[in-house]
């Protein structure tokens, strides 16, 4: 054996048998030259920094942050639906999910149920049996040139519901000088005759949506009074005007004359609500008065249940129950026969002005809280139970349901000053409208149910197209329904 080779071999064996610390010291002293350190020829990659979450977004589909889920609720564009369809197509081809229709991005429950199935296994291995006919769900026709399966073909051919476009800008803007920036007042209302009544300072003005003509109905400056609320009756011929001194005046809009003046309140009247020929008025004196304009003024019902100013009043569509909200953070429900509230809800943490009864579901009541609450809540007045609630992020000033679809609109104050359109019961946001620079304190719906008007302390009235006339529920085709055969 060569002596040089034997010496190098012994040196290498002694170097490998040394402990770690002496070898490290020796390497440092010798500056660890690359010639003396030998390594193998195997390459072992490190997987410490690998990103294993890129699996067609399959693993992280159910691990979204609240911000991402909130953005997913706001998704209403065509690109979001295309993304959902593409994700479903990938799952069909790669994972065999078997999705045949594109889910609606608005309904998170359906989207979660369809797209998150089989989430425990990323890959599935199946053995295709021979002799299966070509028209089955798993196999495609042998004459088809498409690489996609039958499920994917059904997915691509499934009808897509066109997204409803809601304009983000108002189609009309009117100046409203002296429109007060007061949360507890109700100064805008839209009649069944397409007349808009607005209380500006001490005057009430009528604006015709058909002719755009403006007429002044009354001027209370002669008596040193001011307007605090306006409300049309159901037929649209009479308008009730609440004043700062506690009076309620009934005016004939067509004739432009005052019919009567109702007394009984000792403070301003900020809320009014008609129920046929009966008129309910809520005041800062914490009392709700119900009076029939056909009877003498002495025949009245006094409802005492709030401890602070009454700022919201709404009658149910069946004319049987009255909902009232006050600055005491209470929401009360009254019937037409008792002087005590039949139900009381105390979940709100601020004043309850926004109240709306659903025209689609019997006994469903929606309410919104003020700045300290910011929540939109739903109640089942038939059982007295709370249904749902969501934090809107800002003060809720008004609520109104759509007449044709199961949707509602809410206007907000501090600090977003925005208008939100919600889909019920999923509570997804259909649209977000901005434009007012002050709190959106006033809201009214057009008689056809398509447009709304909003008023704010910036002294402007803005008209928006937010609702559609198309109904969500299909018409019954039963032969027992006689109304389907009437034309």
From TrEMBL:
<keyword id="KW-0498">Mitosis</keyword>
<dbReference type="GO" id="GO:0005680">
    <property type="term" value="C:anaphase-promoting complex"/>
</dbReference>
<dbReference type="InterPro" id="IPR001680">
    <property type="entry name" value="WD40_rpt"/>
</dbReference>
<dbReference type="GO" id="GO:0031145">
    <property type="term" value="P:anaphase-promoting complex-dependent catabolic process"/>
</dbReference>
<dbReference type="InterPro" id="IPR033010">
    <property type="entry name" value="Cdc20/Fizzy"/>
</dbReference>
<dbReference type="GO" id="GO:0051301">
    <property type="term" value="P:cell division"/>
</dbReference>
<feature type="domain" description="CDC20/Fizzy WD40">
    <location>
        <begin position="174"/>
        <end position="464"/>
    </location>
</feature>
<comment type="similarity">
    <text>Belongs to the WD repeat CDC20/Fizzy family.</text>
</comment>
<dbReference type="InterPro" id="IPR015943">
    <property type="entry name" value="WD40/YVTN_repeat-like_dom_sf"/>
</dbReference>
<dbReference type="GO" id="GO:0010997">
    <property type="term" value="F:anaphase-promoting complex binding"/>
</dbReference>
<comment type="pathway">
    <text>Protein modification; protein ubiquitination.</text>
</comment>
<feature type="repeat" description="WD">
    <location>
        <begin position="220"/>
        <end position="261"/>
    </location>
</feature>
<keyword id="KW-0677">Repeat</keyword>
<dbReference type="InterPro" id="IPR036322">
    <property type="entry name" value="WD40_repeat_dom_sf"/>
</dbReference>
<keyword id="KW-0132">Cell division</keyword>
<dbReference type="Pfam" id="PF24807">
    <property type="entry name" value="WD40_CDC20-Fz"/>
</dbReference>
<protein>
    <recommendedName>
        <fullName>Fizzy-related protein homolog</fullName>
    </recommendedName>
</protein>
<dbReference type="InterPro" id="IPR056150">
    <property type="entry name" value="WD40_CDC20-Fz"/>
</dbReference>
<keyword id="KW-0853">WD repeat</keyword>
<dbReference type="InterPro" id="IPR019775">
    <property type="entry name" value="WD40_repeat_CS"/>
</dbReference>
<feature type="repeat" description="WD">
    <location>
        <begin position="433"/>
        <end position="466"/>
    </location>
</feature>
<dbReference type="GO" id="GO:1905786">
    <property type="term" value="P:positive regulation of anaphase-promoting complex-dependent catabolic process"/>
</dbReference>
<feature type="repeat" description="WD">
    <location>
        <begin position="303"/>
        <end position="335"/>
    </location>
</feature>
<keyword id="KW-0131">Cell cycle</keyword>
<dbReference type="GO" id="GO:1990757">
    <property type="term" value="F:ubiquitin ligase activator activity"/>
</dbReference>
């Amino acid at each position: 054996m060569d002596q040089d080779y034997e010496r190098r071999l012994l040196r290498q064996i002694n170097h490998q048998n040394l402990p770690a610390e002496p070898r490290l010291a020796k390497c440092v002293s010798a500056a660890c030259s690359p010639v003396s350190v030998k390594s193998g020829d195997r390459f072992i990659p490190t997987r410490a920094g690998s990103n294993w979450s890129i699996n067609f977004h399959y693993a992280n589909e159910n691990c979204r942050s609240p911000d991402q889920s909130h953005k997913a609720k706001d998704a209403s564009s065509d690109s979001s639906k295309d993304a959902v369809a593409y994700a479903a197509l990938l799952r069909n081809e790669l994972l065999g999910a078997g999705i045949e229709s594109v889910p609606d991005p608005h309904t998170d429950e359906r989207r979660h149920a369809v797209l998150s199935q089989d989430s425990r296994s990323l890959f599935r291995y199946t053995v295709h049996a021979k002799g299966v006919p070509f028209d089955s769900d798993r196999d495609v026709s042998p004459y088809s040139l498409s690489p996609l399966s039958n499920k994917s073909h059904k997915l691509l051919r499934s009808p897509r519901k066109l997204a409803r476009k809601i304009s983000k800008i108002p189609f009309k803007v009117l100046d409203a000088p002296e429109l007060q920036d007061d949360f507890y007042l109700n100064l805008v209302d839209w009649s069944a005759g397409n007349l808009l009544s607005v209380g500006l300072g001490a005057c009430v003005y009528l604006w015709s949506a058909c002719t755009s003509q403006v007429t002044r109905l009354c001027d209370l400056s002669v008596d040193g009074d001011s307007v605090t609320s306006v409300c049309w009756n159901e037929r649209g011929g009479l308008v009730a005007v609440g004043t700062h001194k506690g009076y309620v005046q009934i005016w004939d809009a067509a004739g432009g004359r005052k019919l009567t003046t109702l007394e009984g309140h000792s403070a301003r009247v900020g809320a009014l609500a008609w129920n046929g020929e009966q008129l309910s008025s809520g005041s800062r004196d914490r009392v709700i008065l119900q009076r029939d304009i056909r009877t003498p003024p002495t025949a009245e019902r006094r409802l005492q249940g709030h401890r602070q100013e009454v700022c919201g009043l709404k009658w149910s569509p069946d004319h049987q129950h009255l909902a009232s909200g006050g600055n005491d953070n209470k929401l009360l429900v009254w019937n037409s026969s008792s002087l005590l509230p039949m139900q009381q809800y105390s979940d709100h943490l601020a004043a309850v002005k926004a109240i709306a009864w659903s025209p689609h579901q019997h006994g469903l009541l929606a309410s919104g809280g003020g700045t300290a609450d910011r929540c939109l809540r739903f109640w089942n007045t038939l059982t007295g139970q709370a249904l749902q609630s969501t934090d809107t992020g800002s003060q809720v000033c008004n609520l109104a349901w759509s007449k044709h679809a199961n949707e509602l609109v809410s206007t907000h104050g501090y600090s977003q000053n925005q208008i939100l359109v919600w889909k019920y019961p999923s509570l997804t946001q259909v649209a977000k409208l901005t434009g007012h620079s002050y709190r959106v304190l006033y809201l009214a719906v057009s008689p056809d149910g398509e447009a709304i008007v909003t008023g704010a302390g910036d002294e402007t009235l803005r008209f928006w197209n937010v609702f559609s006339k198309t109904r969500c529920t299909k018409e019954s085709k039963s032969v027992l329904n006689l109304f389907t055969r009437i034309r």
